[in-house]
Structure formats: C-alpha cells, structure tokens
Amino acid sequence: xxxxxxxxxxxxxxxxxxxxxxxxxxxxxxxxxxxxxxxxxxxxxxxxxxxxxxxxxxxxxxxxxxxxxxxxxxxxxxxxxxxxxxxxxxxxxxxxxxxxxxxxxxxxxxxxxxxxxxxxxxxxxxxxxxxxxxxxxxxxxxxxxxxxxxxxxxxxxxxxxxxxxxxxxxxxxxxxxxxxxxxxxxxxxxxxxxxxxxxxxxxxxxxxxxxxxxxxxxxxxxxxxxxxx
Length: 229
Description:
single chain; mainly alpha; 3 domains; 11 helices
C-alpha cells in the first residue's frame, strides 16, 4: 500500500499540536531532533517504522492512524469501528472511557469493584432508558423548532437586519404607526412580530416535552432503585 507523506505529516502536526509540545520536545521523546520532526510534518519524509511506533506511544494511537488508514481514523481500529457503528463522537467516547476505564484519569481508578461499569450497564440495558432518550429527543426537537423560527428570518434578511429589527421591536411600542421607519425596517419588524408569536405558540410543546422528560427520568430511576414499600 502506498502512503501519502503529506497526509502523514498533517496527522503528526495535528497530534503534536493537541499535546501542546514543540518539535524539539517531540524529537526528544522519540530520540530524534526537532528539524527531523519538521521534515516529517512538512511531508518531506515518511518516518521510519521504529520512529512511527514511538510516536504512537506518545500520541496514544495505533500505527494505522498515523499512516492515514481509514479504519484507524479515530486513533485506534476499535475506537474507529465503535464510532462508525454508533455515530458517537470522540468526546462521547472519552466520557464513556472515563466512566468504564481503569486508567488513572478514570472514575474507577484505584477501586477493586466494577461498580461504575455495572451502573452504566444497568442504565443502558433498561427499556426505560430508551424511553428517556426518546423524550430527550422530543424536547430537543421542540426547542430546535422554536429556534428555527428566528433562523429562518435571518436566512431571508441577514443577521444585521435581523439584529436591527429585534432592537427596534424591543424599543418601539407601535412600530406599524411609526412614520420614520423605512419600508425594509417595517418588513423586518413584521417578520419578527410573527416569529415571536410563533415562538409563543411553540412554548407549549416545549413545556410538555420538559414535563414528559422529567417523568421519564423519574420512572427510569425508580426502575433501577425502587422505593421500598
């Protein structure tokens, strides 16, 4: 398989930047000089296999990732497969690892028990957890619908005119009879007035979604930790 030296260089540069270390520092970590790191990052050279393996240790990734292979796009083959299958982000994966892992940065570090893993397994396995997520999705959709009302106006007239219209709407009691307003300002104010009315109408579905989410959460907790009768 032919590898792209410039692509490898970009990955090395990105990972070094994430760590916040200089080329000189990275060079010392892997037993070379900063100038050579510069050559790698510019794509002038592909690092030898032993150097790349040392970089993998520093960057906490697998070799395929540094080589730019698609199956390793998220650092390791396993993480890439999980993210591709679930659609989870790297931040979501890191949080799950923080809960379930055993490294010193994880919640479970220093404990003999697998309590955090057990709790998470119970939570994700509960049928009521799925219902809770559905309710959370309903709330997210209701809020998005409300926010989109204003975004649609911004698409039509631009952010500058929208901001001006919002300022005028807040300061003018009766804009329809304010003679000094320009026609385009009146047009924008009509849109804002309509949008505020629509948002008011959409506030009820948001309240309902919040209530149902709260009830779903209470039911989920009760299923996991029922009150003693």
